[in-house]
Amino acid sequence: MNKIYLSGSGGMLGKAFYETFKGKYILKCTDIDVNEKWLSYLDFRDLETYQNSVNEFFPDYLFHIGAYTDLEYCELNKEDTYNTNLESVKHAVKISNNLNIPLLYISTAGIFDGKKDVYDEDDKPIPLCNYAKSKYLAEVFVTKNSSKFFIFRAGWMMGGGLIKDKKFVKKIIDQIIKGYKEINVVDDKLGTPTYTIDFAKNIKLVIENEKFGLYNLVCEGVTGRYEVACEIIKILNLYDVIKINKVDSSFFSKEYFAPRPASERLINKRLDNLKLNIMRDWKICLKEYLENDFSNLILK
After folding, report:
1. What is 3-161+193-221+265-280's CATH number?
2. Which of 47, 51, 131, 191 sits between 20 and 30 A of 219, alpha carbons compared?
């Protein structure tokens, strides 16, 4: 069995990777937040510790998963953001090159300026905020310096369940659980949801076909925040209970002050060309996610 070292794997994406790869691969999963029995402690910002841990495990792949993803935190803490989201990636490149193993790095749809409706792998990123800039600089560093790499750009992530999901879907669910009768949602932010389970499965397919390089990797179908919220209410059959109000981004400007692109919509052009796109429609994935992870809380 091949071995995979997964650093920064304590979050929603790490959970999906663990569940997807554990049966066929020997895994070592690390994070600064040891919140699962299959996790061990590692701060990947410390090169020596990171390098020693990976070398000792001697994997066939290095998956560098973790990053700061809270845009407001990143705006207020630039040095910490770049240390975590960029410098640690440089460590991963050095370690994987020394071992002559492929590196997997997770990028984001947020690296574009949002002036186009949709983006494929040939479009030029123009990041707007510290988070996006740190992720894009790391992406560039990997492409220029890694001998063998996979880069996957994710869209609006959903997955991880009650504890690990800190993204948009969970924020809507939290308001439903608290009994809100009206929920305000922006209608001027567009994107592509990405179910962590499908994301991990499609990555597994690409890796096992040894198709190195850069990929967009999102669910099928383009949408926006407002439509996603409405679909949640529809799936939960709460139309008669909860009203979704359309607002523009200025409504949340004090809470969400980091610059965000108007559109983060991606299309999986390279996956389609290679006939390796197994991502499902976002509505199917959203329904599956809600039924699997939240049925005991809110589904009747």
Report:
1. 3.40.50.720
2. 131
